[in-house]
Structure formats: C-alpha cells, structure tokens
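User: Hi! I'm a student and our assignment asks us to look at how structure tokens line up with a sequence. Could you show me two examples?

Assistant: Happy to help. In each example below, the sequence comes first and the structure tokens follow. Example one:
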Amino acid sequence: MNLNFELYKIFYYVCSYMSITDAARHLFVSQPAITKQIQNLEQALGIVLFVRSRKGLELTEDGKKLFKEIKSPVEKLLSIENKKGDIPNTVRIIAGYSTSKNFLLKTLSKYDEIYPNVKFEVNFYPYHEAIDRLRNGQADLIFVNMKNHPNRDFDGLRLKKCFDVHDAFVVHKDYQGEVPKLLNLLDLNQYPIVCKSGKSVARSMIEGVFAEKKKTFHPKFELSNNWLIEEYVKDCKGIGLVTKEYITEELETKELIEIPTDIPLPVRDIGYALRKDFLYNQFIEEFMKELKKDLDFFE
C-alpha cells in the first residue's frame, strides 16, 4: 500500500500532542485540514485511529498499535527532512513562573538568536500533569522540584539535578523593626505571614513542626506565586516566605531583609527531566549548558 509520508507525519503529531488544534498549530495548517488527513489515513488503512471522550482525543487500540509502529521511523525521517538534522522545529518547556522569569528567559533570548527557526513554548502545569505530558510526548523539557518526590515518578525519563534553591522569610527594610531578629517557627501565627497557597517544601516542613505540637499553621495571606509575595512585602506589609535566589538584587540592595529562623528551612533541589527516547535530546542538553553559563550558582 503506497501511502503519503505526510499522512503518517500528521498522525504522528496528532498523537504527540493528543490534540488536533496543537498539531495544526505546530504544522501551520488548519484544523479541518488535519482532520481530513486523519480521515484519509483511516480510510486507507480501514481502521479507526481516534475517538473522542470526555477527556478529549484518545487513541483506539488500533491507533496505539500504529503509533508504536511508526513513531521511530517517522522521527528518523523528520530528522532527515530537517535541514539541520538535529534541530527541532519546536521545543515545548514546562516550568513554574519563577523558574521561567528568573532562569529561563535570558537563555531563551540568546538561543532565539542562535536558532531563529526554533519555536519555544513555555507553559506551566502542576507537578504530576507536567510529568504526564512529558511522558506522553506533549512536552520536551520540564523543570520540577525534586524534593520529596519518589523516583518512580520519573520511570522511563532522564532526570538531572540543576541547582539548589533556598527558602527564607523576608521583610521590607522599613518593617524590620516590627519583627524579632530570630523567628521562632512556632510563633509564626503571631505575625502577618505571607506565603504561597497550596503545598510547598518549606510550608510542609513548617506545618510538620506545628503538627508535632498539635498545632496548626495559619498564614495571614496566601498568594499564588513568589512574585506576588515579593511585591506585597515590598509594600512594607507582612513577612514573606520566598525563594532567596529569586530576589538576589533586593537582598543585595537591602530593600528586603532576611529574617533567620530557629529551625533552618529545607533546601530544595530543582531538576529537569527529558524523555530518554526524545529525538533532540542533544539539542536540549546544549540548551541546558547555556543555562548553566548564565547562572553563577548553577551546579
């Protein structure tokens, strides 16, 4: 049976994204064109490749079998089709807001000048969804907090440590006189503490200290990210629980002052993960080397 490579190529990208919309965006064609080509492939093979469910697009058993068979050959042909061979069209990155703002943007800007034809997509997803997207081929590089997460989360993936980051309590210089020189963790409820909503390594540790004394930690304010906490604290309000590496300039100029604690807060490991079989891992590793050059505390 003589089938056009483009049909398998389109099928490959729809499977990689598990989205006709994203595949169409990647290939710079319309969604109806993608749908029509998938229908052409189904008719030629005499099988149904996709079904729609409440969760979205899903592969049928025949679709899964076909994708497994064509994945490696299509990726090899795509590498030949690409003039530079080892340069991807798109690199899809998942990283938190603070990691993107403080670490990634400078290197992305530099790499855009070196590889102007490579498109970089940066998005944020919760921890487990980020890993699922990487494993399912919907992301190429993810940055994760490695602390307290089991190794089995990364089965089949290549995980490497990037750097350590350190959480700390800080106040605006004009508010320094309102707080003690040393914070007792069990006294935190007495102060206007500002921290991230949800779970974090530092917050979990603090909650554990309270739980040992049969108490509950109640921060005064809960905000969605480090940047909001920094801005709130800069307005001379409250004691913020932030990551020191994200506020180096403010600490150096003493606009923000670190308040030590009686029990040291835990160090966090930031790592990055790749799929072991990703066609362009060498490109990603070179990107990480550039990122390392841009970060003087990178390990």
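Example two works the same way, sequence first and then tokens:
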Amino acid sequence: MIPSASGRPGDPDEKAGRNCSSNEPAGARGRRVFQAVGPVKRFSHTALILAGHGSTQNADSSRFTRETAKRLERKGIFQEVRSGFWKESPSFSEAFHGLEAKEVIVVPWFLTRGYFVEKVLVEQFRTTPIPTRITDPIGTRPEIIQLMKQRAGRLRRAMRMRTIVRLLMGKDSVKWEETSLLLASHGTPLHKGSRVAADGLAKELGKDGYRVSRAMFLEEEPKIADWRKVAAPEGPVMVLPHFLAGGLHGSEDVPRLLGIPSGREGWYEVDGRMVGYGAPIGQPEEMTELILKMVGTAAR
C-alpha cells in the first residue's frame, strides 16, 4: 500500500475517526479553501495540480488524470501542471517537489464534494510550501449534467437502431417509454455529499422522460447489486456510472454487479432484459476545457 502525503497509509474510509475540517485556518503560508479563482488569461506564476485518488489495484485509475495534466501543460497557460494522488506516486506532497511557481491551484479530480474532498484533501493540503488554493471538485461543474446526457443520448440512439432491426426481423419492438435510468454512484455513510449529488443528478436526468430515474450505490442503499428492484419491473434499463473514467469502480465493479461482461458503453442482455451501460465521464478531451473554466481562464 502506498502511503499518503502525510506518511500514513490507508484509504479515507478506514480513517472515519480522523479529526479534520474544511473550516480550519490555513497553514503557515496561508491558503483559502474552495474559493473560485478569478478570471485571468494566463497563470504565468501559478502551478496547477490535479489531485486524484489513484489505486493500487487498477493501473488505469490515474491514466486520464495524468493525460489531462499533460494536455493542460501543453496549452502553456500555467507555469507548471502536475498530478498527485492519494494511493499512487507522486503523492500530494511529492507533487510540490521542485515547483518554482508563486502559488498553486489544486483541482480535486472527484465528482462530489464528499468525505474525501472536504476532509482528506483539506488535511493533506493544510500546510504547503507554496500558497495553495483548492477549487471545487470537477464533478460540481454544470457541464457534468450535459456530459451525462450525451451518454444517455448515445444509448437511446443505439436502442432505436436495435428496435428497427427487431422490427425488420419480425420481432416485438422495445418500448422506449418503459426505460428506467439508473445512476450508479459510490455513496458513503461517512458523508452525505456523495449521495446528495447523485440523487440530485438522477432527478435532473429524469426530466428527459424515463419511467424510473434513481440513484443506486456501492456503499449505501439502494445497492447497485439490487438494480432489478430499483428499476421498473419491465422495460430496458439504462445505467450511467457516476464515476470518473479509468477507475476500478466504473470499469469493473459496477459492470460485475450489473451482470454485464465489460465496462464498454453499449447494450447488453442480462437474464432476458436489455441493460445499457454508459461510458464513465472524465475523458481528457472533456476534462481539459472544463478545468480551464473552473480556474477562470479559457484556452484561446
């Protein structure tokens, strides 16, 4: 197990008793937590750090974070761009080694302002060698709902093609109006933020017209493994993973719990029922511009 920046190994879920607060004062050099960064064209004296979870079990977990950092670096907007991880190298503290910037902006590579962002990251970046600011996590951006809708749209179009083929073959068509949309998220009893964000997103997606639109979770009820009980009794089931691309949960854990053979976007048949699985969000081409908007600049 790779140690954290503080030198203590382990996942935040194992540190439920940790005493940390997002309202605590800054360290010796000072910083502000969860502050929007002002609109500036270039950050010539600023370093950007993408702070992700990482994994000791899945080599792809950090790949998109690293690729996004490289894309941002090539744009030449920041003095330096790096990535740091809780469970991989470089650690959060190692990401500061050798920085020459006058300030650092940390962007949490997470979808919700939950336990990890509000507790663990705040603790990890409480004392830094360079004045540091932490933005909101990337998943709080309004563009996320559009990225989710794009995935739902692709699955709908694929289902329509399947319906046409079935009709041409003389089979019964699939009734789109009977479709259930399920958002597969993490959830944790340690912090309500993850659940609140997932429930809100499912409600917003449901406005596009589904028989059922609900969130389900790995660590809270209703569980992803019970998706048949969460969905409507009949009709296709569309599942959108509320996980960042490349991670173990979205690529392996959720597909396994659904009973589908892979985490690739598309439709699968599970016990005679059609199950559509969307691609997890977080592709570098999506995240690059989103992050630039977060820090108050735009690529020109």
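Here is something you could point out in your write-up. The chain has two domains: 12-139+284-294, 143-277.
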